[in-house]
Amino acid sequence: MNRRKPNNSRQSLGVALLRVSTDRQFQEGESIETQRRKTEFVARRDGIDIVRFFTEHYSGRKSDRRVLDDLFDFLEENDDIEVVIVGDIDRFTRGGTETYLALKRQLRSMDVALLDTTGIIQPERNRLEHLGVEYGWSVESPSHFAEVFMAEKAKTEASDILTRTIGQQIQLTREGYQCRGANFGFRNAKITTGDGKKKTIMVPHEIEAPWIIKMYELRADGSWADDAICEAINAMGYQSRPMNIYDKETRRVIGQTKPKHLTPKQLERFVSRTIYCGVKCESWNQGKPVKAPIEPLVSISLFNQANRGKVQIKEHRDGSLSIEENRLSYTKTRHNADFLLRHVVLCHECGKPVVASRSKGKSGNYFGYYHCNRGHKHWGVNKAEFEQTIANYLKSLQAKPGFLPLFREVVRDVWIQKNRSFEEDRKLIETHVNDLKDRQNSILDRIIACTTEIAQTRLEAELEQLEVTIKETRKKLNSKQLREDQIDAFFEIAKKRMEHPEETVFSSATKPQLEKNWSFIFAQSPSYQNLLDGTPQLTLLYRLNRDGGADKNLLAGQLSLGWNTFEQQVISFLE
Question: Which positions are tagged coiled coil (predicted)?
């Protein structure tokens, strides 16, 4: 590719590269406008027509600068461009000597010259020009050493600036002071410390702070759904902070974002931020929590209560703090009357508990539904339809006429038989244990009289095995047996639940009570499809009501076979 060399005697074509690193540079000092004026002045002076300005808001230390890719692509497509103008070498790159020389060699391979507004970069010359020949080694830049010095200086200067600014910010952050914009709910304020230095802290925002405090109070109450909390906070006038929108080229403010209402996802972010209880935890402090010199909006105890175990702050005796996160093992225990059956009915696809949500319709009303999409195709059922299906099935479990008094009679008969049998078994077990003890004593006598090591080892092993057998046999003697008063107490509970199974489940006041009522009916948590088909696994009491009805002989036979299961269910339910 052959390009014409820039010549002051004619108009040549060029492009300008303008770069700043921060928003502050956009508006002060070496701003884009300042660099643009300088490059235009040099272009007029040297007879160069700038056809395009490449602007960049990015660090010159980075290697992944998209503007350089755009620049070289433009030069490839337009072979009449002869020069690239930059404000200074540090505006071109801060990557050091190697990066600068590599970029300059790339421009040289395209027959494009590099020009700066400070006059450091001089045109290259051929040292054998007087002989009319040119070699690669004979072409050099008179300002090569000056350019290398300025490129290395630009890199060192960037490191010095970052060391001073970032180092100071890290130190202030570790002391708990503020080095950036205030968090929502606070505003920044300047204070003068005891040593006379001015530092920035956060103070409660007059309008936003009450919203944050109310979020924590409602969340800690435990009876509010996140959607309801959001509605209550939005009714108080909550709005997110408007953010400035900047022009990519000039970095001038061209508008503002629209304020948004509080959503459950944003609520979760607010509640989990430790800064609201006066604790800062940032990477500049190696993730260690420190108490910030601010007035907290909520107490640490309220913070812990609102997060319900997912994020917990602990205060130690020495004054230090620690933060514990337990998000994976966290399970929701809050009772939600709007979605009573969530986490109780299982998904028929993955076997995990279904979840519940509410979505807002076009009318502005919320519509609830139960759903699941964990590792499979999403499915969902309208809340009313879902709960009606459960209610219909529970109604079908109502005790059949005459079942309860008959079953009570059968239980008493079987219990008497089992107790009589157990007493007989107890005598046999005690006799067996005594026989085992006699064998132990006999083996001990043989060990004492034994003279060979091999025989003694075998006798000791036999003695240990007898001890294990005795312990296992005694467990049968110590096993819990169902008492008559427990049977009476169980039937009082069973009578109410079996006469009104639907009301018992849907009137549960707390989630633990709901789970207890649920386990009274179902041996295993059923899926929605099981309830829809009428095929869940019921506890023995409900199975007998379904299969045995008022047939005394059938009830007695089935109860005798499943007595151990029935006995365990009664004892565990009454504990």
Answer: 456-483
DSSP string, 175-244: TT---SPPPTTEEEEEEE-TTS-EEEEEEE-TTHHHHHHHHHHHHHHSS--HHHHHHHHHHTT--PPP-E
Same domain assignment for residues 268 and 391: no
- The half-sphere exposure of 261 on its side-chain side, counting CA atoms within 13 A, is 12
325, 359, 383: which is the final residue of a domain? 325
pLDDT digit string (tens) for 311-341? 888 888 887 888 887 755 445 555 566 777 8
Record the tokens describing residue 568, joined without a space: 């365990």
Reported confidence tier of residue 4, pLDDT bands at 50, 70, 90: very low
Contact by Cβ (8 Å): 1, 110: yes
Question: Alpha-carbon torsion 462, 468, 471, 475, what sign?
Answer: negative
Of the residues 156, 187, 221, the one at which a domain ends: 156
Q: How far apart are CA 380 and CA 372, in angstroms?
A: 7
Q: Does 148 lie in the same domain as 94?
A: yes
pTM summary value? 0.48
Q: 46 and 119: one domain?
A: yes
Distances (CA, A) of 221 to 214, 302, 334, 396: 11, 10, 10, 37
State how far the Cα of 51 lies from the Cα of 82, in Å rounded to an integer: 11
> Based on the domain organization, do 115 and 213 belong to the same domain?
no
Helix 208-221 to helix 264-271 angle (10° resolution) is 90
Domain, as residue range, for 260: 203-325
Closest CA to 6 of 114, 88, 142: 114
**Cβ atoms 203, 319 nearer than 8 A:** no
Residues 6+ apart with CB under 8 A from 128: 134, 135, 138
Identify the three-state secondary structure at position 307: helix
Dist. CA 127–CA 139, nearest whole Å: 6
